[in-house]
């Protein structure tokens, strides 16, 4: 028998069973209707969900694919990324923002992010071009590798969009395209527009823990350009427009009909789930902003944050890990997104080494707190009092 003491409270970092118990009847009925048609790949359910999503965003096009990673990969192909070209991407992100560039044949060039919003701005991009870029034949090239720099993956981390108005201006001036990694940012806006409005395309993930999550893997690409949309529709079915005739090497990457059915049900709740996240974030911000040792996240002007994560910085060497452990002992879940930045990953060790001190600092300081819509007010109060009255009063 274990002699370990169990904490008196138990507040999960995330709990999907609470959501499911509220929508079980709707989900089961939607899944059953797909089962009764036995049409599992593409078809009416997927088409309907794509239309639903496009109109939810107010964009003309939405293409369902198999995952957020594939959504990025196919978007990069549709943006015209060629083998051996370089794409700038923040190092402070999930691995797939960068691995998709490698999977598409490109070379990631890692940038810093703004330390208050965790997103890239024109400042970090300009600094990287000044450090590594040189203009040759009218195009940017990487001085170190000699490869052409053709585009940028802009990541909207934790549910807040980067400032796409200034970033798209910057990209246009510098002759670069943008693909948006909106995997964590469904419902977010920048200057009143969603991901996909200011760029070639925006990639979304329906991984179960996302603000809109399926019952498995899934993804979607939003765009405003009809040619991009048509290309993506071909790329997801083996590079084919006419069955068994293949124009290019494509992929097998489709959104399953069962996933589309589940997601269609959940979409009806997304506005209210996102606003509950907003309410929890507001309370965290209000209560934590005066706590010395904690830096609360900033919302940039013109941004509508959907709080996929509520992520604070815990300053002071080792303090973040101490706080995480303290919370765990009290039975409170918290997570680190992400402990090892991408420029330090073994998988990217073939790339020239980079020095990114802001990114390293963030990786050592960030801690995400429970912010899922079904978190109870009483539970949030316990999280806050454990941090403010427990950890910081005691240390
Ligand atoms: C920022 C970011 N990019 C890409 C992905 C990849 O999405 P998926 O897991 O659906 O492939 C995720 C989610 O896991 C993500 O959070």
Task: Give the SSE map.
Blueprint: H1 16-37, H2 43-57, E1 61-65, H3 68-78, E2 86-90, H4 95-103, E3 107-111, H5 122-132, E4 133-136, E5 139-142, E6 149-155, H6 164-174, E7 177-181, E8 189-190, E9 201-205, E10 219-223, H7 226-235, H8 257-288, E11 294-295, E12 303-304, E13 310-314, H9 319-329, H10 357-365, E14 366-369, H11 377-394
Parallel strand pairs: 2-3, 2-6, 6-7, 7-9
Antiparallel strand pairs: 1-10, 4-5, 8-12, 9-10, 11-13, 13-14
Bound molecules: pyridoxal-5'-phosphate.
What does this entry look like structurally?
With 395 residues, this protein is an alpha/beta fold. It folds into two domains: 19-265, Aspartate Aminotransferase, domain 2 (3-Layer(aba) Sandwich); 270-394, Aspartate Aminotransferase, domain 1, CATH 3.90.1150. Helix content is 40%, strand content 15%. The chain contains eleven helices and 14 strands. The chain has helices at 16-37, 43-57, 68-78, 95-103, 122-132, 164-174, 226-235, 257-288, 319-329, 357-365, 377-394; strands spanning 61-65, 86-90, 107-111, 133-136, 139-142, 149-155, 177-181, 189-190, 201-205, 219-223, 294-295, 303-304, 310-314, 366-369. Strands 1-10-9-7-6-2-3 form a seven-stranded mixed beta sheet, sandwiched between helices. Strands 11-13-14 form a three-stranded antiparallel beta sheet. Helix 6 (164-174) links the parallel strand 6 (149-155) and strand 7 (177-181). Helix 2 packs parallel to helix 8 (257-288). The radius of gyration is 22 Å and the shape is globular. The mean pLDDT is 96. The chain binds pyridoxal-5'-phosphate (PLP). Pyridoxal-5'-phosphate is lined by residues 67-69, 93-94, 96-97, 155, 181, 183-184, 205, 207, 217, 219.
């Amino acid at each position: 028998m274990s002699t370990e003491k169990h904490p008196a409270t138990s507040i999960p970092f995330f709990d999907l069973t609470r959501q499911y118990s509220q929508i079980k009847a709707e989900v089961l009925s939607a899944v059953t209707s797909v089962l009764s048609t036995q049409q599992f790949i593409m078809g009416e359910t997927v088409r309907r969900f794509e239309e639903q999503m496009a109109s939810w965003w107010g964009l003309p096009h939405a293409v369902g694919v198999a995952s957020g990673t594939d959504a990025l990969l196919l978007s990069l192909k549709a943006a015209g990324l060629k083998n051996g070209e370089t794409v700038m991407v923040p190092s402070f992100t999930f691995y797939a923002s960068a691995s998709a560039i490698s999977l598409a044949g490109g070379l990631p060039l890692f940038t810093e992010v703004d330390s208050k919003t965790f997103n890239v701005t024109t400042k970090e991009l300009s600094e990287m071009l000044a450090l590594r870029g040189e203009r040759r034949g009218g195009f940017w090239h990487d001085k170190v590798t000699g490869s052409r720099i053709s585009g940028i993956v802009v990541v909207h981390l934790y549910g807040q969009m980067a400032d796409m108005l200034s970033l798209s201006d910057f990209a246009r001036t510098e002759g670069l395209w943008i693909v948006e990694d909106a995997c964590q940012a469904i419902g977010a806006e920048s200057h009143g527009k969603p991901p996909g409005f200011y760029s070639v395309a925006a990639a979304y993930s329906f991984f179960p823990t996302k603000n809109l999550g399926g019952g498995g893997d899934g993804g979607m690409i939003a765009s405003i350009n009809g040619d991009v949309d048509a290309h993506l529709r071909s790329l997801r079915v083996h590079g084919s427009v006419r069955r068994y005739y293949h124009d290019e090497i494509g992929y097998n990457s489709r959104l399953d009909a069962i996933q589309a059915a589940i997601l269609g049900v959940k979409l009806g709740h997304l506005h209210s789930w996102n606003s509950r996240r907003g309410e929890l974030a507001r309370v965290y911000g209000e209560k934590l902003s005066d706590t010395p040792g904690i830096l609360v996240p900033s919302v940039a002007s013109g941004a509508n944050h959907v709080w996929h994560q509520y992520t604070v910085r815990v300053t002071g060497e080792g303090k973040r890990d101490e706080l995480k452990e303290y919370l765990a002992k009290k039975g409170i879940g918290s997570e680190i997104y992400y402990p090892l930045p991408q420029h330090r990953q073994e998988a990217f060790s073939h790339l020239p080494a980079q020095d990114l001190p802001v990114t390293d600092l963030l990786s050592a300081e960030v801690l995400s707190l429970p912010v899922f819509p079904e978190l109870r007010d009483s539970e949030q109060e316990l999280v806050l009092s454990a941090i403010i009255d427990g950890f910081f009063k005691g240390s």
